[in-house]
Amino acid sequence: MEWMAWTLPTALFFSAIGCLLLGMTLLELRKPCVERRGFLPIATTRGDRLFIGLLVSAYLHLLVIGGGDWNIWVASLLSLVWLLVVMRWG
Asked: In 10 A of CB 38, how many CB atoms?
């Protein structure tokens, strides 16, 4: 594991994703969802919206790490806000 840069932001990011996946699994087992339309141009389920939110979050982090001067915590905060917006209104 020495080849990977496990910093606190990295560990928190992947821990949060794991908790999200566990929570979504438990929620889906307890209350199955149906597709709905929001501001996204397609009908989506909760899992679809989570995937879209995580994908955009990953690209945002890569953009900040690779070519930005922002702090990684700014990217994490923006990703959290994006994820909440997509999950609620997407």
From this structure: 15
Could you report the per-residue pLDDT of 36-70, keeping only the tens digit for each? 898 989 999 988 898 999 899 889 988 988 887 88
Question: For residue 66, is it within any domain?
Answer: yes
Domain of residue 60, residue span:
44-90
**CB under 8 Å to 49, separation ≥6 — which residues?**
38, 40, 86, 87, 90
Enter the tokens of residue 37.
Answer: 């339309």
Would you say how long the chain is, in residues? 90
Encoded tokens for 65: 């790490």
From the list 9, 88, 12, 11, the residue with the least C-alpha distance to 50 is: 88
What confidence category does residue 2 fall into, taking pLDDT thresholds of 50, 70 and 90?
low
Rounded-to-integer distance, Cα 65 and Cα 50, Å: 22
User: How many Cα atoms within 13 Å fall on the side-chain side of residue 18?
Assistant: 6
